[in-house]
Amino acid sequence: MSTANREAPRPASGRAGTKKELPDHFKDYRHVWVFIELERGQVHPVSFELLGEGRKLADKLGVELAGIVLGPPGETNQSAIAEAFAYGADLVYNVEAPLLADYRNEPFTKAMTDLVNSHKPEILLLGATTLGRDLAGSVATTLRTGLTADCTELDVDADGSLAATRPTFGGSLLCTIYTLNYRPQMATVRPRVMPMPQRADRPVGRVIRHQLSIAEDDIVTKVLGFLPDNQSAKANLAYADVVVAGGLGLGGAENLQLVKDLARAIGAEHGCSRPLVQKGWLSADRQIGQTGKTIRPKLYIAAGISGAIQHRVGVEGADLIVAINTDPNAPIFDFAHLGIVTDAVRFLPALTEAFTRRLSPHSRDKLAS
Amino acid sequence: MHIVVCLKQVPDSAQIRVHPVTNTIMRQGVPTIINPYDLFALEEALRLRDTYGGEVTVLTMGPPMAEDALRKALGYGADRAVLLTDRYFAGSDTLATSFALSQAIAKVGQTFGTPDIVFTGKQTIDGDTAQVGPGIAKRLDLMQLTYVAKIPSVDLSAREIKVERRCEGGMQMLKSRLPCLVTMLEGTNEIRRGSLQDALYAARSQVLKWSAADAGIDDLTRCGLRGSPTVVKRVFAPAARAEKAALIDVPEMNLRDLADELIAAILMRQPALEQELAFNGGE
Lengths: 369, 283
Hints:
A: alpha/beta, Rossmann fold, five-stranded parallel sheet, B: alpha/beta, nine-stranded mixed sheet, two-stranded antiparallel ribbon, 7 helices, electron transfer activity (chain B), Rossmann-like_a/b/a_fold (chain B), electron transport (chain B), transport (chain B)
């Protein structure tokens, strides 16, 4: 993917022929911004991943990287600012107000658009979480600028414009999208798509504070309550070190048990490709891929998954990808490291058994110690 | 109560093929469906209509063939269908799409009564952006309620709506105002089987076909390619990894040996995994 992106952009197929140029009033838009997302007092890890990407873009452009912290007064806000610097921000724009404690579209859109209009960034990145997507859509519409969702690669072109690459056509191809005549250039990126950068203790630098110009009385939507997810039932797919997933090659919903058995034997999380969720074999929170979870495990075992781009972009960050598929020409063998050309339904029980045989002595030792 | 549901006709993504030589999409013969996420929005709209009374108008923007999707929606029980179709809309990105749809919704409101709720699906399966819903909300100054899992109550006289909204790590209970825009989360309901009556109604009904002018759109510079700030410069297939997967492919090997072989290959490449797996597994 990255090699493909380094080719010189081919001219003018379709829309590139529209010759969009940046109007003068956008020419003073400078610097790269990353929205620092707060969820119940914690910074969402996707914000750090974006600071890592933002750092690269800012360095290439020779501009500054700013973190945008919108939070309630107190510890939460202060620690988010400190973390933004620890992950590479040069400065932070901060709006601190009690009514930013729970996310609501109205005050966050107001705070963000006001900041953009006052300080004019050229690039604004947000995490493609439920919060980030809700906010990005309304901020981009208010500013009437372009927004590219769920990017899998971000780069800066020779002329300094943001090249945002994402899957298209239901995940069967990739496309590179530009916002040529509007600013800021906005993009969202899903959690775990970009690697987590190194954290370094650094002193808190420049913090530019802004007032929130909207009051509680002006906000229509009220938060009545919050119901946290049941933690034990919640799949921790995105952060699992070992993941086993099944696809249509399993043949039937009942064979998902074979995937779960292997996952259980090696202490892995289990997941599936998109068609299985559409068929109702597994719930959406187990879906791996562009529209599901992006994973970066040490070991990923894909059983009966053909490997459409939609799936590929969700697993490419894995250290080792093992594919089991009957079709030697399946696209998954183009990006897997190890492949077995066989029927997953027959092979999975043997693999579970072999792992159990191999691993159980260690577990016994561990239990004994 | 008047509800507008925005639908999109999309290619059945499971059946899209990429030409192996030219890397272009082979569209011929790919069947189209109503974007699956939109069906959750449609069902919720029909449910609210059945509870509170009123009408459901389905709206789509697309080529003339998108009429099929609207007819299907009428068959599920929608009361009225509007197809926004004009060559000026070709090449719209999400900003231009939400502009055109919001103009059409305003026109639907003038003609058939102001909508109390506008529904969209969470996202489409071909674009996957989730941006058009928020775009419509912002332009029409509707309260924006995304990723809604449940609508416990609508109070038409007090103009109030309560929703449960999916957010990171839990559900937010929100109270908001009508009119609003709701994007519906998947898996929250199941589309009904249309009745025979609905099927007859769908067959008899006219789908209203509106051009940009019919929808009251004067400013064509905000439509289609011209109204789209984003530009797709390149479409390409991802490069294969330099080396393909090392295939362990020994037809005569029994499954047990094959499994041992695979585990050995895994551990050779990632020796640290042995420790990891031993810690996790074998419960």
